[in-house]
Amino acid sequence: MVERLTAVLPTVADDYEIIVVNDGSADRTGAVADELAAADPHVRAVHHPVNRGYGGALKSGFAASRKAYVFFTDGDGQFDVGEIDRLTPFVPEYDVVVGYRLDRAEGGLRKLNAGLWNALVHRLFHIPARDVDCAFKLFKREVFDVVRVEAEGAMISTEILARIVRAGFRIQEVGVHHFERRHGKPTGANPLVIARAFYELFKLRRRITSDGRPAARA
Fold first, then answer.
1. Domain 2-210 has CATH 3.90.550.10
2. Model pTM?
3. How many CB atoms lie within 10 A of CB 129?
4. 71, β-bridge pairs
5. What's the pLDDT tens digit per position in 56-115?
6. Which residues fall within 8 angstroms of residue 34, CB to CB, at 6 or more apart?
7. Per the CB 3.0–4.6 Å rule, which of 14, 31, 53, 175 could disulfide with 153?
8. Cβ atoms within 10 Å, residue 110
9. HSE of 116 in the Cβ direction (CA atoms, 13 Å)?
């Protein structure tokens, strides 16, 4: 993934960085990330001593970012990072450009779960995106100066977009291709992960509702 990003990013940006977040991996992921960072000044590695979860990993990446725009994707190769050029034409007009999966390469149960989850999220937060959890998103860096994210688990994408909508940022969505997972094991269908996501979902709903009106932005 880092090699692919190294080939792609110079075609869309004059200045870029690649942040690899090692979320408490028990294999050689951390060592490999450090080797990549040592070999290329554009690459930086962020390490968690223990696993913090998907949300915790993303928050560390966002906090470490230093450029005007922040793009994130997963490291399992289910997206072609070359398709970032589908997102970039919509900035700077939009503050956030979110992908949605074309021909989603997953089983029927996961597709059903995703459809129900997206329907519930739309109803609760009025997020103008059909695939909230698609791991292919581009943000203006300033978004994270306004939006404060708390989720440590799978709920983070919902929280980010719900708070972005609440703050009045502009969102555009774009279709991107989705491929079969070739490495690692997915955890999104784990009953404990699902239960935690629903628990966090309704906690988020209460917090956002109690926040009152969104603050005006200059």
1. yes
2. 0.86
3. 22
4. 138
5. 999 999 999 999 999 999 998 899 999 999 999 999 899 999 999 998 877 677 778 788
6. 45
7. 53
8. 14
9. 8
